[in-house]
């Protein structure tokens, strides 16, 4: 993605990259100084500016031949630090700007300085900080600058978890902080070794000289596990469910939609741009195998949650697993990772999830505020009382499931093509299964929300429609991502699109809906209001034995999940993964 | 170069010890201390890399030195935030562990009756 | 084996012993004390590695202020130790030990494989020093070549403050941080708090000033100033300012604010963002460093003070 020739000189629109970081940072400083009363105004003033900058970069990247560069302080690497944006960066910058914008609109009513000075002060500053840190990650061209950005992201994300100050969320925040710090220190360790080997931290310069020496492979393994810990890939997910489910809705949307993508993006840069030749087939298979584990555990546990927020949080866990399926599909014939269609599809999944999941968390937040609870079994009648929130959840869910023309559907089709092309049919199977699981938990929630209620439910608080409309717009964005012309940014051929609407594509969708519905019936333990109907009872008799087996299986998965979420187990898995990755890479080279 | 070897092995040992403490000790404050131990080992590794890169009359490559100074300050603020969280957790009477309890699992009967 | 090597091995052995003690000792307070001693001796290793700038930072921030913070936390948590002592099973500990040891071994192996001749940026850093007019190469890297990292790290410090403040109970928002310290006005602490600060402030300013050409700089100077302020606070001679104080907030953003402003200046009128015109590079950098020292001193001290615990007095 980074053509080497032009990567070491400032290009004309390079200053936009500086602005994408400096404007949110200026916002933080200004908001902090002006204090509680103006903090929201400052943040709301920065949001359109940031959106404009992201838009300008989106326009500038294709004009600059796919790459814009800025040398900070006019010092060229290796002594200085370069900022670079390619198609991937531009797309991520734009997605981040849109999600932040929607969350800001949504949060204007939640975090008002007048009613709650403390949380509004923290929330708006942290929102800008998440933005600055993510932009830095997307355009940073230096491994140590990325470390600072990663820490900035952690410091912005952790206090968001514990804004309400309850003991549970404080514990979740502390667990998140300590595990994330462990992750970033491992990343830094790898970066130190790489500097020792090559005397540079610049990604382009390093990619030109890097070779498969044992010491370098060890460094890469350490950096990778550090980033995996921060991305919460199974089995390193101990911090994610409680942190994402405990935070206020607007914060959860940011944490789940955007923050985990930061470390994931650095991993992409590291594997695809810095060391495309080193990880090889086996290590890529290994990452995707972990992703498969995440899909199974995350989805099954999600299907068994009583609380909607936890369901959505576990679904994030499963979706993170999904993102790792692209790695083996991107390995080419000579064992190099290729920045081709698989990577593009993976990135498309990343932004689909960012938009859909953020919208879903916002919808759940609205449901929670208005009903006063988020028990899935108590959602009956919600669709009538809160049509907009339930609709948002539904649209976000459809986008996540991969209904045409969503980004997820497009990405899945691209990945399936790659799986067939490279002969790795097993990942095609996982892709299909993953789609069914996603469908299962989305259908489950909708089945409860659309069910009639035995007693009339009265919302305890009515929210402004503006909030829900913003979230709905975001969900719709996600659902329409497949129609966006991606060619200037990602190497995608659009001849896939007609296929999605062909009979074959619709059959696949039908299959995944049927499969998902079956999974939801088999794995979900709650009693649906319609279960009393006679037709259902007849079917229940047939399914009963199967359902018992599945319930046992669910119990086992639950147990495995709670063991893996123990601190010691997660720590041991972390080190095991590091050693395994190192060994796999040694073996391949 | 022998000093480099000695301190290099020491840095690796400090990182290993810190990782062990971070995994096995259940008390959060001990985890925070162990994290700092890992951090100091990582910083020393930068120092060793820099010491090897002595040139142009400078005894230790200034780039890794600067990175370490930045790193020390970041590690300090991380420690401060973690301790503030821990003390607040202590005040609210929450459990002083980082163990993760299972979210309340499903209790209903699978048959749905 | 030369005397120097023997000394180095002995130093490494002692520090390693302290590290083991820190991890192994059951009592948390003892572990903390062990870690403080460890931090101070690690500063000696940094001197041996000819990295005096880092040694000063490690001693002041890592060992000194970090030590005070950990000791304070250990003291406040002392009563809670018994209730939470749920240790891991031996199997878990054994597997963690094996895996940590293998990771350390792998790492030591990687360190032994570092290339010869080693790559270095020292010559590049020295030959470009003319652009800033400062002789301390570390300061040049921090302030010029990698200025963006340094500025962002100031923002990290500010976010840590926001994070710590956000932990206040709602009724204490805008109030003062930490418990109020009452010390005997005739006691040792109060005596030291009257005696040390004038000298400490001079040392702090000297460290900042000398950092242009010799080891030292904003971080080290800021840390010394922070410890003086803390001493005065702990002795009960002064109180932490309320977090809503506009003046305090101005001090806390001064460093990164000025840095960012100079950066924008470079973007609009100069060669690039964070580029300094050669003629005024040194005064500009020193100006940023002065503001940064103040910010760092205030930030470090307030990070130690903890979440706001007292509402603003009526």
Automatic annotation (TrEMBL), chain A:
UniProt keyword Nucleus present? no
InterPro entries from the UniProt entry: CPA3_Na-H_Antiporter_A, ND/Mrp_TM
Residues annotated as domain NADH:quinone oxidoreductase/Mrp antiporter transmembrane: 141-433
Membrane topology (UniProt): Multi-pass membrane protein
Q: Where does the record place it?
A: Endomembrane system; Membrane
Give the transmembrane ranges: 12-35, 42-75, 87-109, 121-138, 144-164, 176-198, 218-240, 252-272, 284-303, 310-331, 343-364, 385-405, 425-448, 469-486, 506-523, 567-588
Keyword set, alphabetical order:
Membrane, Transmembrane, Transmembrane helix
The source's domain of life comes to Bacteria
Principal place of residence = membrane
Q: Which GO terms describe its cellular component?
A: endomembrane system; membrane
Which PANTHER family does the UniProt entry name for this protein?
NA(+)/H(+) ANTIPORTER SUBUNIT (PTHR43373), NA(+)_H(+) ANTIPORTER SUBUNIT A (PTHR43373:SF1)
Q: What is this protein called?
A: NADH-quinone oxidoreductase subunit J
Organism of derivation = Bradyrhizobium arachidis
UniProtKB/TrEMBL annotation, chain B:
Has UniProt tagged this entry with the keyword Transmembrane?
yes
Segments spanning the bilayer are: 6-23, 32-51, 63-87
InterPro entries referenced in this protein's UniProt entry, alphabetically: CPA3_antiporter_subunitC, NUOK/Mnh_C1-like
Q: What species was this sequence derived from?
A: Bradyrhizobium arachidis
Which keywords does this chain's UniProt record carry? Cell membrane, Membrane, Transmembrane, Transmembrane helix
Name its cellular compartments.
Cell membrane
Name the UniProt record assigns to this protein: Multisubunit sodium/proton antiporter, MrpC subunit
One Pfam annotation reads Oxidored_q2
Note whether Transmembrane occurs among the keywords: yes
The record's listing under PANTHER family reads: ANTIPORTER SUBUNIT MNHC2-RELATED (PTHR34583)
Instruction: Using the UniProt annotation, give all residue ranges assigned to the region (Disordered).
Output: 94-113
Instruction: Extract one GO cellular component term from the record.
Output: plasma membrane
TrEMBL record, chain C:
The MrpA C-terminal/MbhD domain extends over: 14-78
One GO cellular component term: plasma membrane
Q: Where is the Na+/H+ antiporter MnhB subunit-related protein domain?
A: 189-298
- Main localization, broad class: membrane
Query: Where, per UniProt, does this protein localize?
Result: Cell membrane
UniProt cross-references to InterPro entries, sorted A to Z: CPA3_antiporter_subunitB, MnhB, MrpA_C/MbhD, MrpA_C/MbhE
Report the membrane topology from the UniProt record. Answer: Multi-pass membrane protein
Residue span(s) of domain MrpA C-terminal/MbhE: 95-167
Q: Please, which domain of life does this record's source organism belong to?
A: Bacteria
The record's keywords, sorted A to Z, are: Cell membrane, Membrane, Transmembrane, Transmembrane helix
Q: Which residues cross the membrane?
A: 6-24, 31-49, 55-75, 96-114, 151-168, 188-209, 221-238, 250-278, 284-305
Homology family:
Belongs to the CPA3 antiporters (TC 2.A.63) subunit B family.
| Protein name as annotated | DUF4040 domain-containing protein
Species for this entry: Bradyrhizobium arachidis
